[in-house]
Amino acid sequence: MKILVTMPVGGERDSFFSPAELAKWEQIGEVVLNPKTEQFTPEELRQQLRDVDIVVTGWNCPRLTADVIADAKQLKLLAHTGGTVAAVASPALYERGVRVISGNKLFAQSVAEGVVAYMLAALRQIPHYATALSEGNWLSLSYPDRMNKGLLGKTVGIVSFGTISEFLVRLLQPFGVKIQVYSRSLPQATLDKYHMTLVSLEELFETSDVITIQTALNPHTHHMIGEALLRRIKPGSLFVNTARGAVVDEEALIRCLQEERFAAVLDVFSEEPFGADSPWVGLPNTMLMPHMAGPTMDRRRAIAAALAEDVAGFLAGGTLTHEIPADKAFAMSEK
Hints:
Blueprint: E1 2-5, H1 11-16, H2 19-26, E2 30-33, H3 42-48, E3 54-57, E4 77-80, H4 91-95, E5 99-102, H5 104-123, H6 126-134, E6 155-159, H7 163-172, E7 178-182, H8 188-193, E8 196-198, H9 201-207, E9 210-213, H10 227-230, E10 238-241, H11 250-258, E11 263-266, E12 286-288, H12 300-315, H13 326-329
Parallel strand pairs: 1-2, 1-3, 3-4, 4-5, 6-7, 6-9, 7-8, 9-10, 10-11, 11-12
């Protein structure tokens, strides 16, 4: 059993693969590491895959197209250390019968944790008070000039219900929130299980104290959150986006935030990274984060270990816990 790890030499690979994680993969078969400090080109990857049974990929790996896997006659499984596989898998890969797994579930769990952290930080205005005190300014609450809030008892609206949202609603349960969700298709059993109410997008934006965007970016969801919806947000509410920047009409969002009618936590943007001259810089009532809702760095090695355990169990005759079927793969965000 030959295993190719395509991630190049450097910090990213090291963050996923300590000697302990590599040892888990070496128990499965012969591990070959990318010796370069950059990703393989598609042509190089085609050559590397000739006698490989399992390929382990990371971010920015070339897509495994029909051409790239043309000589990969032994390839049985793709293990992607990222979450979404839309940018690395291809229809040809699935048609060949190659099984695909990824760290999506573990990523989703960490992102859900990040969403809750963002909600609490913004509602309680933690960055504001922490920054002030680090500069020697002890600020006290002064109603109504400074009004911080909590998450307890709030109405939380979730746009789209997938893996992240399912972890999120579990984390929200202890806060006693009312959860309402917008989804094009959601069984009543799921709504009942998590005590959620299915609502239209319009109602969600009009009635939620906290709105969190959890939808994948694809042709159907590009700019699905436009100015008309943003104008429906209640004054004083919180808008959180940890999905993808282009799910929202960002120009409209900037205009709305400049009016200071509601607050926002934004973790994702159409242009990443952006510079000091970006219109995002200096927006009032807005907490900006550099696309780091999840996973936290310490979860990366857990992902590499979990994928190794999944592969080992599968080769021993078990099922794949972290498998991504084709229909799910191509509904995921590419980037």
